[in-house]
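Build the 3D complex.
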Amino acid sequence: SQTIHQWPATLVQPVGSPLSLECTVEGTSNPNLYWYRQAAGRGLQLLFYSVGIGQISSEVPQNLSASRPQDRQFILSSKKLLLSDSGFYLCAWSVKAGGPDEQFFGPGTRLTVL
Amino acid sequence: AQRVTQPEKLLSVFKGAPVELKCNYSYSGSPELFWYVQYSRQRLQLLLRHISRESIKGFTADLNKGETSFHLKKPFAQEEDSAMYYCASRARGYNKLIFGAGTRLAVHP
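Done.
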């Protein structure tokens, strides 16, 4: 069966420090991968999605970047964190368009920038 | 551009009362609509999709193209229905989901 992992589960970082959040998927190949930020009162905001290795689409301008070095690995990064980067980050995967339409979400990472 | 609106941040009802969580979408084409749910300490997960016309855990949602709505309904709420509910839309043939802001449903005994 397929599973999706995220780490770390929680992270407290000072302003200006770098960030690296990791997401990996098991039990499937060539998935679409997504990074969302979940903020109170704002719901789920799609940050990045990827349809393949090295292919990243950015949905909103921001202080973050994403990379997909391997088929089932998706990384969210920042060179210098801002206070506004605090939030709950969710990774998700789905099969390609035309297949089952469900997105499967990871457990999330709670990021606090101080 | 696609947009999903959930006008209520919080919906508070008593056990056994009917529930309706509102969702309106804006999209020029013919989107696919979904409801996702996040129970306390659990992952966000799919509840139901309009294309299946299914009832899950007593919940149903009908796509009303005239009103561009996809409201989630349950005739008799249970305490275990307390959760965060997100409405989402997707353009046909695409993978990107656009989520609403979410509605927290609190069912009181």
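Chain B has one domain: 3-108.
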